[in-house]
Amino acid sequence: MNSGPAATPHVSAARVSFACLSSRVWTEPGLFAEIVLATTDEMSGLVAALAENLAESHAVREDLRELAHRLRAALMQPRLVQLRRLIIANADHFPELGRT
User: 3 and 11 in contact (C-beta within 8 Å)?
Assistant: First the structure.
């Protein structure tokens, strides 16, 4: 991995070269936005899958309870809790992400 002189901790964490990362995301705010949006998409996919299963349910009460447990477990993952904290802490700098 060639991270070059302008490497940041983000480049090392991503395990890509600086050129590769900067070709997709030009700034740290852009990187932050990409991470938030990717995570939002991931969670939207989970909710859609859970809702689809619920639509086919014959035991709605039990399935709703299972859906709640799975959704809570997903939302309480340490990486998501940390990301929510970062979004809240940076709400003044990135108000559009808070609305997302």
Answer: yes
Note the pTM of the prediction, 2 decimals: 0.55
Q: Provide the total of helices (H) and of strands (E) in the chain, helices listed first.
A: 6, 0
Task: For residue 100, give the H/E element and its range.
Answer: none
User: How many whole angstroms separate alpha carbon 70 and alpha carbon 74?
Assistant: 6
Assigned token pair, 67: 């859906």
Hey, where are the domains in the chain?
Answer: 32-99
Contact predicate 23/31, CB 8 Å: no
- Tokens 């940390």 correspond to 82
Contact of 17 with 4, CB cutoff 8 Å: yes
User: Rounded CA gap, 46 and 59, in Å?
Assistant: 20
Query: What is the structure's pLDDT at 6?
Result: 45
